C-alpha cells in the first residue's frame, strides 16, 4: 500500500450542509476553510472558487463527499437531501477547474479510514471499526479486518439506510431513498429538525432541539429515540461483522450528550462482546483526515 505523497494536495469534504477545504503539503494541513453547501450546480462551482481563492494550483485533488461514487459521478441515496447531487459529474467539474488528477470517495468511508489511522498507535487498535456520522444525513464507513470497505458500487456502510425497528416521532415513514424504517429518517440533523418542527408546531433546527432537551421532556424524547435507533443499527452491524469499535462523528453525533445517550441505549441492548463506543478523535475533520491519508487503491481516480 502506497500513501499519496503529493506535494500540493487540495482536500475537500462535501457534506449536505457544509463544504470544507484544506490546502495540504506532504500530509500536513496548511490552511482549512469552510463554506455552506450550495443548492445548485452553479452555486457549487462558486463555493469551490471561494474556498480555493488565492491558493496555488494543486497537483492533485482528493475529495470525500456525501453520496456514493460511481464512474466519476456522485449519486444520492436519499434523493430528498441535495437535489442537484444525484448524478452530478463531480470529477469532470474538478478536473476542468484544476487540470489535475481527482480522486473521489464517500465521506463516511473516508472518515472511517481517518479514524482508523489515528488509532494506529493504540495498544489494541480495532481491526473492525464502524464510523457513523450523524449529520445532515446519516452516513458511515466500515473498516473490516484492517481494510476499508468501499464496495463494488461505493455503497458499503451506508448506515443511514439500515432498517431499524423504531419509528420517527412525527410519524414520517418513507425515507428519501424510497424505503421504510431507515435510521436516517430518525437520527439525522434534518430528521431531528423535521420531528421537532412537527411536534412543537414551529420551525426548529437540530441545535435548538438539543438546547431545549436540557429542560423539555418531549425534546429529550426525540433525541433519545434517535440515540436508540443508532444503537439498534450498531447492534445489527455488530452481529453481522463483529465490531470492536464504533466511532461517532458529525455535528449531531458530536452534539452535547449524544454519545452518552447512544452508549446508554447500547448498554440496554445487552450485546455480546459489545464494541467500544467513542467520539471521532478528528472531530468534524475526520473526513478530511481520511482523504489526506487515503491510498489510491480505495478511491476512484480520474486522470
Ligand atoms: P455535513 O452534513 O455537511 O457534513 P455536519 O456534520 O455539520 O455537516 O451536520 C449538519 C447537521 O448538524 C445539520 O442538520 C445541523 O442542523 C446539525 N447541527 C449543526 N450543529 C449542531 C449542534 N451544535 N447541535 C446539534 N445539531 C447540529
Ligand atoms: Zn433510506
Q: Explain this structure to me?
A:
34% of the residues lie in helices and 23% in strands. It is an alpha/beta fold and 303 residues long. β8 and β9 form a beta hairpin. α3 crosses α10 (286-293) and α7 packs across α9 (258-268). It starts with 7 loop residues before the first strand and ends with a strand. The relative contact order is 0.17. The site of adenosine-5'-diphosphate (ADP) has 17 residues, from α5, α6 and α8.
> Which ligands appear in the coordinates?
adenosine-5'-diphosphate, zinc ion
- Dominant shape: globular
In percent terms, what proportion of residues is strand? 15-25%
Q: What is the helical fraction, as a range of percent?
A: 25-40%
**Oligomerization category of the chains in this entry:** single chain
Task: List the helices and strands in order.
Answer: EEEHEEEHEHEEEHHHHEHHEHE
